Q: What sequence folds into this?
């Protein structure tokens, strides 16, 4: 059972490998299209996020095709950037749960800042469960809970906290704009 | 588990489609009749979205750390030079 630190190191090793193996090709493509280094870095960062979510988190086996996948995603992002501009919201609109369609009600940046400062442990736990899809028994161990039951209760308490924050900010925002 | 947390658990089953058909029908009916409950469902949807945004922001930070190392440490000077040559053409 990996600790959180070991998981982070494994991710860093993966990103380092993908960066060194694939970024030169992507950079060559972006340069040929008239882009600069910063644009290539930003674009590749988003491509890695997509790769991580679509391949690593879903345990898809690409192995030899990881490079082709990342190059393909990068090219698509470049074309998207050429027509609509590239920003984090572009991929934030890619929803992994097709039936949970959401229109952001509040400023994501402001809310993230609040959440990150007021409840980091909660957010990290929620990230582990909902995003990284780590089983609760492992989360219980990583976050120092005595049992899966305790971790489950805490998970819902944290989710409630985020929901309350969303509600509060949403109401504040409505008051502000009305 | 206290009542509000049990309700959150039920809404989660509904939103993430891990509940039974029977529970789903009950919650669907409740959303038609109870405006407060519908609001809770809506805010919980948004909460999942915020968690994903937070996770992505954390992931981007990790990628930036890797990128910074590749473009600043002496061990990676060869890689850095290779990339810079591409943009000098």
A:
């Amino acid at each position: 059972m990996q600790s959180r630190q070991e998981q982070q190191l494994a991710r860093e090793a993966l990103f380092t490998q993908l960066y060194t193996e694939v970024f030169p090709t992507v950079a060559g493509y972006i340069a040929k299209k008239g882009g600069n280094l910063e644009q290539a870095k930003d674009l590749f960062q988003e491509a890695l996020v997509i790769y991580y979510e679509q391949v690593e988190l879903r345990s898809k086996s690409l192995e030899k095709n990881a490079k082709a996948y990342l190059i393909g995603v990068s090219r698509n992002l470049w074309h998207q950037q050429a027509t609509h501009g590239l920003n984090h919201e572009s991929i934030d609109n890619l929803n992994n749960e097709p039936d949970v369609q959401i229109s952001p009600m509040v400023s994501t940046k402001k809310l993230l800042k609040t959440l990150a400062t007021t409840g980091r442990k909660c957010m990290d736990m929620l990230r582990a469960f909902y995003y990284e899809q780590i089983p609760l028994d492992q989360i219980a161990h990583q976050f120092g809970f005595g049992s899966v039951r305790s971790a489950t209760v805490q998970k819902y308490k944290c989710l409630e906290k985020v929901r309350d924050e969303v509600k509060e900010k949403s109401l504040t925002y409505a008051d502000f704009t009305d | 588990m206290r009542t509000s947390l049990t309700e959150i658990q039920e809404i989660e089953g509904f939103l993430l489609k891990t509940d039974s058909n029977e529970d789903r029908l009950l919650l669907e009916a409740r959303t038609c009749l109870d405006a407060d409950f519908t609001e809770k469902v809506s805010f919980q949807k948004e909460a999942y979205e915020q968690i994903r945004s937070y996770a992505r922001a954390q992931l981007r930070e990790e990628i930036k750390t890797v990128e910074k190392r590749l473009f600043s440490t002496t061990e990676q000077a060869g890689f850095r030079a290779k990339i810079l040559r591409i943009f000098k053409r």
Q: What stands out?
A: The interface with chain A takes residues 1, 4-5, 8-9, 12, 15-17, 39-40, 43-60, 62-67, 69-70, 79, 82-84, 86-87, 89 of chain B (CB under 8 Å).
